[in-house]
Structures are given as C-alpha cells and as structure tokens.
Amino acid sequence: MENKTAINPELVQQFVGNAHGDLDRVRELLEAEPGLLHAAWDWGGGDWETALGAAAHMGRKDIALYLLEKGARIDLFAAAMLGKLDLVRAILNENPALKQARGPHGIPLLNHAEAGGAEAAEVLAFLRE
C-alpha cells in the first residue's frame, strides 16, 4: 500500500466551505487537488460535512451535480435534494429510521428535500407521508 501525504486541512475547510455556494471556487480547488472530492471537514463536535453535503443542504444543484459528475459518492441527503425519489425510497425501505436522519449541522432530511425546490417535490411528499 502506497503511503500518501494527507491533504492540507485548510484546503479541505476551504473546499467544503465554498461548496455551500461558490461553484467556480469548488472547480478551481478540485482541479488543483482532486483528492478533495471525498474529503470531509469537522466543523466541531462531530459536525462532519463533505462538499456534496454542503451543496445538498443549500439546494445548490449545480455544485452537487458537478461533484457527482466528478465521482462524489451520493448520499441520502443529496439524493433528497436532487429529487431522486427511487433512491430515497429504496434507502428508507431498508432503514425507515433514516427518515428522521439529520445531516451536516443537524439539518433534517426533510429540509434537504425542501432545498431541492420543485424538482424534489415528489421526495418531499414521500417524506411527509
């Protein structure tokens, strides 16, 4: 197994922080350091967040889709925001308790669907059942 150098934590914080709303900066940082794609930042107290997670709760579909195109691993929260009803339904059918799950910053799954707007309306209705 190859011994790799860790990514600079300040770079991780910048990447995740900018994923809340600055697509151009996210692109710039990811081009400079591809390893950021799967990096997570702890804002304190175990409040872990990835760039995809940041984009998801902010309703930034453009950033989320860019990250997914680059190979980010989709999660329940991003799926809800993006209106991926089949995926959300499949996950919740396997683990119904996740309907009450909270993502980064303690933001509930329902809020992620709300952030998705009209494209996530079916997911929102499903979560409200």
From TrEMBL:
Gene3D superfamilies in UniProt? Ankyrin repeat-containing domain
* Any one Pfam family match given in the protein's UniProt record, by short name: Ank
The record's section on InterPro entries has: Ankyrin_rpt, Ankyrin_rpt-contain_sf
> Which PROSITE patterns does the record match to this protein?
ANK_REPEAT
Q: What is this protein called?
A: Uncharacterized protein
To which species is this protein native? Answer: Paenibacillus baekrokdamisoli
Provide the organism lineage as a comma list: Bacteria, Bacillati, Bacillota, Bacilli, Bacillales
